[in-house]
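seq as requested:
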Amino acid sequence: MEDHASGMDYQPKSRPPQEVLTEVKSLSSGLYDILHVRGKTTAPGPMASNCKSDDNEEGSLQIVRHPWSLYGVNNASLQKGMSNLARELPKRGWKIVKNGPNRSEARTLEILAVHMKTRTQMHAEWLRGLDAGTEPLIAFDVYSRCFKPE
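struct tokens:
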């Protein structure tokens, strides 16, 4: 997966920001549907910001990100949601780049995927809420490639 916070290995395309916002929102909504777990979700929706890149002079490039979380359900439901993601993403045009525990001490389960048509990327992480006062959730970050706003 490309690192959207450093150098790029692609040429950013010119695109209307609203088109990219709509695309990322639609893909995010599709991820929620794939989970087949109905809980609470965080707001806000997708937002455009300057793309942090070695190649980005004076904010000429933008990126659309949609960070959100699913919470308000138990860990068994969240585990089912992660399994559903892993099974269904390839059927919906996503290529899974990683599916397994991360390198943290907690060995949190994460899925990294790229939507092959749009090159939008997705990171989902199941935080089990094992610390006192924390609620279990799946945290998502869905983000576009950097683009030149039209």
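The chain has one domain: 14-149.
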